[in-house]
């Protein structure tokens, strides 16, 4: 826009001529997701901790055979897969908020978020891959 | 802090106490409940990262997995387990409180009693939980096995 085209006044921010399509509801859905996933994680994560750390002999009984025994059941496979995805997305989205709050320079914010997104993709992808391709006879 | 100059409101703010009839958020237990929620959330996320990678070793070999999981079995690690359980439990309970504040019509009115309630629940779970894990840790450390 050349200088001579400049309007005499700037539109009011909420004036109807402003294109509404530029607004996105992403943050609303992210807010809602934190609450819905949190509700499910209460059962998934606290149940997981109770089983793994307190029942029977806690961590002392965990080894390859124990994992093989659990993942023989579709129920625990599904439990672990859901927990992996929800915790990864919930925790990652939460960390995105934290980075947005504290990073002072746009560059720092950008790179911290890239680091976060890469680590989220790695965790969720590796975890999902392991769950779907687990082989109880890998040692033989 | 008893100054009556124009700066006194700012000073009370920085001193961190809920003056002005409890309308100041800064320094209020409500602020600390949020700080703790944030810290526990971030710490648990970091552990999730490590934990997915250590579990992924089941895809490498039974031996690789067993060797690494052995580190979690050292008796001193019960302290780490306690820290993890304490952090997750606080974050979960406070998360439920946050949801009640957001969605329940009386949530904001009862946010403070709800904070004391979740802290009480946290203690009621953590005291026997710590006792159980610490006794087990000591038995493993000195009982020899
Ligand atoms: C156990 C059940 C859980 C519940 C009920 C829960 C609940 C919540 C809620 C409601 C929020 C949003 C707070 C807000 O918008 O002010 C939140 C934030 C967060 N959660 Fe969770 N969560 C749970 C598990 C987890 C887990 C397993 C992780 C880590 C992997 C995690 C990491 C985070 C992080 C990093 C934040 C952002 C904190 C902030 O913005 O201050 N949460 N959680």
UniProtKB/TrEMBL annotation, chain A:
Record-linked CDD domains: SQR_TypeA_SdhD_like
Positions of transmembrane segments: 32-55, 114-134
UniProt xrefs under Pfam families: Sdh_cyt
InterPro entries reported for this sequence: SQR/QFR_C/D, SuccDH_FuR_B_TM-su
Gene3D superfamilies to which the protein is assigned, alphabetical: Fumarate reductase/succinate dehydrogenase, transmembrane subunit (1.20.1300.10)
Keyword set, alphabetical order: Heme, Iron, Membrane, Metal-binding, Transmembrane, Transmembrane helix
Localization, UniProt: Membrane
Protein name: Succinate dehydrogenase / fumarate reductase membrane anchor subunit
UniProtKB/TrEMBL annotation, chain B:
SUPFAM superfamilies given in the database record: Fumarate reductase respiratory complex transmembrane subunits
UniProt subcellular location: Membrane
Any Pfam family matching the protein: Sdh_cyt
Protein name: Succinate dehydrogenase subunit C
Cofactor(s) the protein needs: heme
Organism: Actinoalloteichus caeruleus DSM 43889
PANTHER family with a match to the protein in the record: SUCCINATE DEHYDROGENASE 2 MEMBRANE SUBUNIT SDHC, SUCCINATE DEHYDROGENASE HYDROPHOBIC MEMBRANE ANCHOR SUBUNIT
Top-level taxon in the UniProt lineage: Bacteria
